[in-house]
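User: tokens in, sequence out, please.
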């Protein structure tokens, strides 16, 4: 029980790094001596100090002698190589911490279990797997990015009581304000957000984060035949934007914010685009719709999580919402709406 409580604190701390550390993982750490937290920290910014370093630095001078008798809880396996910062395994051994509890492994090829083996070989007691089925782990983005060489993919959509996600040819808004706030939280935390041509044309979405604190994601629109007009918000230069097309127009020039990406719209379009995003260090992606675009991902079973906002409104007719099949891992009540998070078991994470 004690281990679970302190690990929960690590997970909470880790999430404070959301939107700041990609493509590194969000990581939190606490140092506990005889049931009392004497230090804590999290990975705050990409390329900067790791959670373990910040945690140990926070221990007050009067408590430093307790470090050699303490347990270090970390939400991720400590790293064991010198990347942008030194290896955390070295720090743990130097500080002679006798016990380390870890929530999930680091699937980065240079680590991947090696961090734990190094500690165990040096005589540190290491406990792993205490989160069991706690599946929304802060390391999920990183571990998909590192092991599958693509971003973590969330399919996100709202659906009416009668199973529709929209009507043909015009924008309908049927989820409530709480749902919108949470959707914008996602925009602050994910690296990129993607929509299809029809959604871009009918909704003219800004795809920026306006309701949550923090940054906005990279915007991506599929525009196979380059038919989207230049007066859409996508082209306003407010945020980095990718226009994915089969053929650029002669007037399509890349600038600091706008990037025209030429790809064949064949059956490999989505995997190729995901590979490009990996190359650009994009570790998480929201697929916001519409139905055709969501189905592009569903038909090749390339998704990790679905975020479904269910609303009590009835549309009567319209575009049917997709029906991803997955394990329900969380459910949130948002006034009259409900947010359900499904995990794609078939991805085998
Ligand atoms: C940890 N604790 O808080 C984080 C870790 O280039 P660097 O130095 O930032 O190191 C990158 C590696 O560290 C990579 O394996 C990444 O998954 C991991 N991140 N590791 O022990 C942390 N953020
Ligand atoms: Zn580290």
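Assistant: Sequence out:
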């Amino acid at each position: 029980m004690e281990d679970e409580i302190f690990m929960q604190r690590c997970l909470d701390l880790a999430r404070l790094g959301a939107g700041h550390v990609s493509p590194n993982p969000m990581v939190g750490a606490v140092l506990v001596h005889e049931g009392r937290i004497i230090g804590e920290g999290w990975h705050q910014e990409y390329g900067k100090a790791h959670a373990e370093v910040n945690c140990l630095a926070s221990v007050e001078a009067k408590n430093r002698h307790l470090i050699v008798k303490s347990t270090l809880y970390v939400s991720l396996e400590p790293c064991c190589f010198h990347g942008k910062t030194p290896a955390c395994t070295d720090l743990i051994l130097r500080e002679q911490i006798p016990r380390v509890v870890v929530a999930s492994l680091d699937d980065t090829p240079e680590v991947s279990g090696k961090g734990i083996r190094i500690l165990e070989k040096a005589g540190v007691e290491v406990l792993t797997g205490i989160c069991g089925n706690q599946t929304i782990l802060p390391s999920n983005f990183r571990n998909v990015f590192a092991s599958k060489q693509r971003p973590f993919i969330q399919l996100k959509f709202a659906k009416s009581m009668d199973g529709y996600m929209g009507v043909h040819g015009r924008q309908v808004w049927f989820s409530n304000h709480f749902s919108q706030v949470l959707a914008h939280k996602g925009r602050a935390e994910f690296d990129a957000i993607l929509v299809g041509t029809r959604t871009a044309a009918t909704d003219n979405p800004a795809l920026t984060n306006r309701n949550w604190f923090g940054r906005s994601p990279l915007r991506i629109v599929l525009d196979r035949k380059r038919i989207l007009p230049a007066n859409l918000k996508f082209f306003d230069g407010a945020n980095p934007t990718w226009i994915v097309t089969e053929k650029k127009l002669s007037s399509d020039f890349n600038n600091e914010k706008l990037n025209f990406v030429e790809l064949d719209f064949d059956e490999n379009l989505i995997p190729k685009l995901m590979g490009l995003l990996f190359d650009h260090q994009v570790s998480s992606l929201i697929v916001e719709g519409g139905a055709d675009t969501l189905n592009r991902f569903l038909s090749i079973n390339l998704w990790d999580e679905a975020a479904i906002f269910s609303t009590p409104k009835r549309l009567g007719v319209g575009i049917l919402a997709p029906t991803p099949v997955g394990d329900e891992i969380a459910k949130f009540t948002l006034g009259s709406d409900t947010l359900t998070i499904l995990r794609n078991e078939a991805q085998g994470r």
